[in-house]
Every structure is written in C-alpha cells, then in structure tokens.
Design brief:
Length: 791
Amino acid sequence: MNKPLEGNPLEGAIGLSLPRLEAVEKALGQARFTEDLVLPGMLHGALLTSPHPHARIRGYDISAALALPGVKAVVTGDDFETRYMGLVVKDETALAKDKVRYIGEPVAAVAAVDAETARAAVHLIEVDYEELPAVFTPEEAMAPGAPLLHEDYGSYFKIFDAVHDGNMLSKAEIVGGDPDAAMAKADRVFENVYELSAQYHAYMEPGVALAQVDPDGRVTVWSSTQSVFRTQANIAESLGIPMAKIRCISPRIGGGFGGKSEATVQPVAVLLAQKAGRPVRIALSRDEDMTAMRSRHPARVTCRTGVMNDGTIVARHLDILMDGGAYADDSPAVMMLAAYFGTGPYRIPNYRLGGRAVYTNKLRAGAFRGFGNPQATFATEAQLDEIAGALGIDPFELRLKNALQPGDRWIDGHAIDSCTITDCLEALRDGMDWPARRAKAAAAARPGRRRGIGIAAVAHLCGFMATSAFVRLLEDGSVALNTGAVDIGQGSNTALTQICAAALGLSPDQVRCVDADTDTAPYNSGTNASRVTYMVGRAIGEAADVVRSKILEHAGEMLEAHTGDLELLPGGRVAIKGVPGKTISFQEVSIRAHWATGGPIMGTGSFVYEAGEVDPKVALTKGFMSFNGAGAYTFAAQAVELEVDEVTGQVEVLEVWSAHDVGRAVNPGAVDGQIQGGVVQALGYALTEEMVWADGRLANPSFMDYKIPGTMDVPYGIHAIVLEKAEPTHPFGAKGVGEPPIIGIAPAVSSAIHDATGKRLRRSPMTPERVFRALAGEGDGVGIDWPNGQC
C-alpha cells in the first residue's frame, strides 16, 4: 500500500475543496431520491401501526380494507413465517407478529392505487389486541415481576455471548488495574449521575422504499439506506428470500446519521409487492418516521473518578444504563462502545467501565452519530471540569496533564498509532486565545445575562468491519470506481473519487464513482462509524496498487523498459525516468490490454479488521464485544462560549471552536462542512432536542414540537480548526471526521453554563426550563423526568 507522500505531484487531487459530484443536479432539482422514482403500474403503500405499547395480537379483520376500491393488497403478520432480523441480536420481524412492543410499531400494510386510498384503507383494518402491562424506563423493566418483552430472548441468534436477565438484553464490563484499591488511595473522589434524553436523527428524507418483484421471484429494492448490503441481509433474514435473489440499489439519499443503518420499511414494501404482483413504494411521513424508525439511546451514566491533589487521575468507575427500546438493534454495541470510551483520551491506569442495555416499551434506539460516545463523554468531560474547579486547576492544564501520548495503548491494549490529543488541545487553546477570552467573558457579564466558556476533549475510532473496492481502467484511459459505499449526502463519493484519482495520478474528472448496487458493487458494510474515507480509502489504495502495477507491466513492454525505470505522470501517462518525451498514455495501455494481450486492467482491494489479542492484564466480562479489531483513533478538542439569560433560562451560544486531527484532509471543504454540521447537531442535542414519551406515546412527533436548531439558533462563529497529522495506515494519511464533532459539545455547554452561572446541569438537553430550575436552586436536572417515562 502507498504511504502518504505529501508534495507528490501525482497527489494533486488530494487537498482540493472540490464541489460534490452531485452538486449541480441537486441545485437544479434533478437529483432522484427514492420518492422521485416511478415504475409502471406502481402502487402506494401505507402502514398500520400499533396504538398500544404492549399487547398480544389475537387476530385481524382485513375485509373492509380489501373491499375499498383501489386497494390491491393487504399484508399482516400472518403473511410470512416467523423470521428475525437484526445486526447484533436477531429479535425483530418485518411486521409485528404475535404481539406489539411499542406505540408506532408496524402491524399491517396496504398497497393501493394512490397514497390517499392506502392511508384510508389501513384505518379499516381491525386488529384484536389483548393489552399487556408495559414498562417505560429501564428501572421499571428490570424490577422484579416486570412483564417480559421478549420471552424467547434466549433462543434469538446473537453475534456475541450475551449476558442477559429478563428485560436486560446485555450487560458487560471491562476492568483494568485495581480500580477499587486506587480509588481508596485517591486524595479526592468525585461521583455524579448524568442523564441524556433520546434524540431524533432529523435527516431531511424520511424512510422510503420502492420494491419490485420480477416474474421469477427476484426482488429489486430502491431505498433510503446507509447500506445496500445490510438492507439486502435484513430482507433475506426477515422474509427468507435468498440473498442472490435480492438486489438493493441506492439512489440519492437525504441523510442518515445512523438511523438508516438497518432496514425498516424495505421488507414491508417487498411483502406488498409480492402479494400485489406490482411495484410498491412506501414513503413515511415525518410523524411516522419519528414514531416508527429509531432514536439515539436515552442513558443514565454514573461516573466516579479518583484523583490526586495535583490533578493526576488514578481511577474511574463508569456505569451506563441505556434504554434500548422495544428491539435490540445496535443497543449492546452502543452501550459497550460508550464504556470503551469511558476513560476518554487520558491515561487512567485503573478502571471499571461497563453498563446495561435494557428493553422497554418504546421506540427502538439504534446507531446515531457518535454511537454511544456522546453519552459517555457528556459525563466524563463535564465531571472533569468539576474536578478542575474543585482542585483549582485550569481545565486545559488538567487535560494536558493526563492526556494520552504517542506510543500509549488504549484500555484493551490496542496500539494508538497516531495520538494527537495534546496537539488538539493546544491548537484549541491557541485558536480561541483561552486566557484572554476567559477574561473577556467575565468582563462581559451584565445584569440578567451571564457569559461563560466550557471545553471538552474527545477520543473516537474510525474503521470497523469489512470493505472492498474495485477499480477498472476504461478503454479511453479513464477509470471506473466501484466501492459499494452509500453517499448519504456527506460527500463521500467525492472524497473517494479524489483518493482514487490521486492513487493513479489522474484528475478527479477522469474517475467515475459508481452508485451502490448489490448486483454490481463489491461489499461494504455501511456508511457509518466515520469509516468510509478511512476504510474504503484503504481498499481503494489496494485496488489502485494492482491497477498501477498492471499499467506499468504493459508500459514496460511497450516502451521496452524495465518497470522499475518507469514513473507515472499526472493526467494519466507513463514515462521513462530521465528520458524526456518518452511517454505513453493510459489510453494506449488500456487499448493494448483490451484488444491485444493481458485482458482488461482491473484491481480489487478487500479486507476486514480482525480482533487482536486483548491485553492479558485487562479483564473483559462475558458478553463484552472487544473493539480492538478496529481502525485508527481520532482526537478532538472543543469549546463553547455562551450567554445565559437569568430571567428566562435561555442559552445563547455565541461562538464554538472545534479542533480535529483528520489525518489528512482529502477535501478540506467537506471536512469543514462535517465539523460545522456536527457542531450544529450537537448544539441541538445539548440544548433543545428531546423526544418525550408519555405512557409510551411519543408526545412531540413533529418539527413543530421537536426543536432542531435553525439558522437563528446557531452562532455565526463556528471555527473549524483542522490538524493534519498523517495516519500511517491510510494510503493518503486520512482519518474519519464524521462523528467526533458531535461528541464534545454537550459537556462543553454544561461547563460553560456553570462558568456563567455557578450552576451545574447534569441533564441534557439543557433546555431553558431546566436552566431556569437550576438557577432557582431546584437541582441539576437529573431524575426529574426519568421516573415518568419521559427520558
């Protein structure tokens, strides 16, 4: 694999802030999303969802729905065998079967000639329910005598050795050193409880799928997904269709943030298409999407940290209680990754980090940008500021004192090849001019409005699971790139095109990036986990190496030179080193390969991260999925300056600084956009966004009542500070930057509110009501809503 070679003229495509490949078609309104697709004879689908949080299904009466003119098919749980899908625990069916477990769970579906008829028909379906007791919080779910949501949990297929008990679907812990003894010897011990609410993914495009079944039973599905391969697997698992008979295609995607990593409406669309014998499209409304898709995990985090008086952190206990909702989805993995980052980017020699994920009768919680790390970091970084204040140490100095250093290892023994947290902290401190800005903030206070600043440091991972890439030299000397990665709107196709171009010394317009299609694309696990630029970029590097080698072999024979004497020139030419004018083009090479000898030139790259050996001094309890089979560590440091209105509790964010080590910025403009977007989404998580349930029913399923930040709610000054420290395991030194910008903002906001008012909020979002209560001396927000199920 090529190593990063800064200054290499062949790498001209790296470092260019190119517009996204699809920018013009989107600007002209010509981009085709799934809901824009129309097939001959296409029907429209609609879902009937459960009105009960927990009930047994005793039967259906679909006669009235079938009798409605225009209705072509109705499907229920009786239309398919009991087959389960799921990434970590296979516990979910395409439609509810035998019983429902949350309000909004799809129970039946209708296909009709138009959407209005389909929606009218679903309300004519009568379902005979036997209501069952429900549980809405993890505490209720784990209480003695609580109703079981999944009586057959023990028989479900799981990708890990789960430790479970009743509704607790997963429990795990990782222990290093002697945390109890170290805690007992610490000069000071700090223990606090932090709570975080559910967050909606709020992508622009709600869930949508279009399914077509050929006469031979072969299924084609177009859908808004983050992985055509996971969609294919979900359909196969839930409906029993061989994967070879399922084709999944990705048109343009209107965002995902993790919420579209697993299938939801796709299997239902297939069921309807099979029964109707015609193509069927299901497009969820915003209300349906919010009640039937996924959320970020609500969590309660107990953090106990032991420190010495000089600020040295000697021990940490972290316990994470996560509300997984009605189905497992990614809950065990999210909970364990949160625990995995429980020490933050610091040297903490003694630790006990663990948690539990629990079933409740609410919407399933799944993958969401950050994947558990925002929950853990909210607790650990907010508490670190409390420790700094109690010890009289500058917050930057406390972090720098304990920061991981190059050559250190993560808690499970995973080597940190590129450790840059100190660089990020110093860049942040310098970029915001920390001492002067703190003094200015203190001086800016005026009656009724107080100003404060808070910071946080972040560690994360990029690169999980399997990926591959296919690079083919076309007859005219240009290149077709196929990776199976889905561009969900973040511009990954553009970055991957730049990587491929640079690997072969081409300009980006000489590379065509092919959209994801399971029939033609090499496997890629998904667009998630900040993995595409890093993981797929590595696979492209391997594939391009093969192509380059074959080009040089042909060119050597054509130029009568040894391949070691040849070099690639920018623009797609091969030259003899030191012999001016003696060159041939990629087109000449490709024509020779296609029509004379050797065959078409193509290359593949394929790999999967395999779990390495865990440090024998570290104890992993049964059920802990180790993450040491993963890619590069990424680091960041973030700061927020804000003002608090002491009369209303309103928080106004004035400026944000976000410093990130991105390895190498393949497309600096896209990197800046990821940081800006992540910060805005994080501000919503910190201040306004909260999914609220009342007795299992989502009380705010619309953007009228669920508040995401608008243009007037975010500061003009979001300063992206980009550090480029080449990652040695990537062909051009790049790391992922999709998730880190969202992770540290909430604790920085909490610390800034404390800096402004002296009041500490340990519950996110820190809404005006909660800030006002804190100012009135009514606590830190913890435990006020959770017992009522509004978590």
